[in-house]
Structures are given as C-alpha cells and as structure tokens.
Amino acid sequence: MKKMTNDYFLKFCDIVERSMPNPSQFDNCRKDMIDASFDDRNEVFVYTDTSHNMEVLKLDEYTKEFEKRRRNEIPNLKEHQPSAVDAVCVSKDNEWFLIE
C-alpha cells in the first residue's frame, strides 16, 4: 500500500479526526483502497489492483457515528445510515478522489 503523506491528505485526515464524536475511532477510517472497496452486501472486494493500492480515508465510521447521534435525537427515524462517499484520497497536487 502506498502511504499518503502529502499535506493536503494529512490536513483532511486531521479535520475528520477532530470532528468525530469519538476520535479514537479514527484509526478505523484509514484503510487502503482494497479494504475500503469491500462490498458488505455481496461479500466481495470491488477493487483488487495491488499494484495501485493506496491509502484512503474510509468514511463509513464517520457516518456511523452521525447516524447514532441522529437516531438518539429522533428515535422514530426509519431511514438508514446516510449515503456518503465510501472513501477519499487527496493527491500531492490537491486533486481529490471520491471513491464510491
């Protein structure tokens, strides 16, 4: 896995970590593209290219916390976890990749 060390990605990671209700969960957000591509419903990895596998920030943990808080505030809410981009990566040139 290519570790992302550019300032843009690290700043984005810092913002997400600080905005999480439980920052200790942040480590669960840092994944590689292969791990982030796992399709729970079909139990398959969608992305399998090991030669271009890089670190991404997987946002499922982030939205899970949001859903928990929302459900506590609105107990009868029947909606599921809010839809979100599965993962984000930011290049050294500040190009943003939103991975679905």
Total number of beta strands:
6
- Mean pLDDT comes to 85
Overall 3D form? globular
User: What is the helix content?
Assistant: 25-40%
- Output the helix-strand order: HEHEEEHEE
Question: What's the assembly state of these chains?
Answer: single chain
Q: Looking across the biggest beta sheet, what order are the strands in?
A: 1-4-5-6
Q: How would a textbook summarize the main sheet?
A: 4 strands, antiparallel
Structural classification: alpha+beta
SS strand fraction: 15-25%
Q: What Rg, in angstroms, do the CA atoms define?
A: 15 Å
Number of helices: 3
Query: For the terminal residues, how far apart are their CA atoms?
Result: 19 Å
Poorly predicted parts: none
What's the structural blueprint in terms of helices and strands?
Layout: H1 7-19, E1 30-32, H2 33-36, E2 38-39, E3 44-45, E4 55-58, H3 60-73, E5 87-90, E6 96-99
Antiparallel strand pairs: 1-4, 2-3, 4-5, 5-6
